[in-house]
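Priority: medium. Attachment 1 of 2:
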């Protein structure tokens, strides 16, 4: 396998003993790994990975001990502090440690906390960014996270805080007013509260919303709905997390940009979903 995936010429960084590399694995599709991630996988003695990391990615580290640090089979997830301290212990034991996280390690992934603990304990680190679900996952659904005709800003929010409740520090009125497009991570559980908050803050019930579950994997599903209908539609769909939720008119672009559907032979539903009446590139 490694022969068929030779890294291009470059002085690739060496994962030294006693170091921890915090690395993003992307949203799912192994092809969305970075070359730095692949380089890391090939050198690690130990890979500590999360629930959202696809098993196929771990095949690139056949030499490594694999440690699972996520939730599985209803068992509670390992405590964050325990994971961080485990990383410290492994590094101190002289291992080459790869901490592999879904998406980007610094986007709602607690990678910042783990990195901080490591530095506080004197463990040297390297950060390898990854493609975050809120960007790459939406792209696989044919939703551009920005589009000149739709939005000049985008807000990424988390649907719940450390205690599992709807994030109390979020100012939904400010977000509603300030950002044409809102991308919500971990939002499934509290979607009723979130949708209600956005509508109370003035977003129309007719506003397009998309749910993209297990984005970029073979099991990816997309539900197009509206703020007013999304709670019922999600319940009826039986969709399960992980889901990335996009609120805003960029969801309409899927009508022309659902490239996976087109590859399967479906015609675009509307070549000009925003009704601009001109080819997009002439602006
Ligand atoms: N660090 C990750 C996010 C971790 S938080 C990143 O940058 O993508 C976990 C949340 O991310 C999930 O609840 C879900 O909202 C989102 N997510 C991650 N991977 C996903 C995927 N393949 N499909 C849909 N949502 C995903």
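Attachment 2 of 2:
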């Amino acid at each position: 396998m490694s022969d068929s995936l030779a890294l291009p010429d470059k002085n690739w960084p060496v994962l030294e003993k006693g170091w921890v590399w915090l690395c993003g694995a992307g949203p799912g599709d192994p092809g969305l790994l970075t070359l730095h991630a692949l380089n890391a996988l090939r050198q690690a003695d130990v890979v500590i990975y999360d629930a959202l990391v696809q098993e196929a990615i771990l095949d690139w580290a056949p030499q490594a001990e694999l440690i699972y640090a996520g939730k599985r089979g209803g068992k509670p997830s390992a405590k964050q502090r325990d994971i961080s301290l485990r990383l410290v212990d492994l590094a101190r034991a002289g291992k080459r440690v790869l901490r592999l996280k879904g998406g980007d390690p610094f986007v709602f992934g607690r990678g910042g906390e783990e990195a901080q603990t490591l530095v506080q304990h004197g463990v040297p680190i390297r950060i390898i960014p990854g493609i975050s679900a809120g960007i790459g996952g939406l792209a696989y659904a044919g939703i551009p996270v920005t589009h000149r005709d739709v939005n000049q800003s985008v807000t990424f929010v988390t649907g719940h805080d450390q205690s599992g409740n709807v994030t109390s520090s979020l100012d939904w009125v400010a977000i509603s007013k300030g950002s044409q497009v809102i991308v919500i991570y971990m939002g499934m559980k509290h979607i009723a509260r979130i949708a209600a908050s956005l509508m109370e803050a003035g977003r129309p019930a007719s506003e397009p919303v998309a749910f993209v579950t297990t984005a970029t994997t073979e099991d990816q599903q997309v539900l197009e709905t509206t703020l007013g209908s999304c709670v019922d539609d999600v319940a009826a769909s039986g969709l399960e997390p992980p889901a990335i939720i996009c609120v805003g008119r960029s969801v309409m672009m899927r009508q022309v940009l659902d490239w996976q559907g087109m590859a399967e032979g479906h015609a675009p539903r509307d070549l000009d979903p925003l009704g601009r009446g001109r080819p997009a590139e002439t602006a």
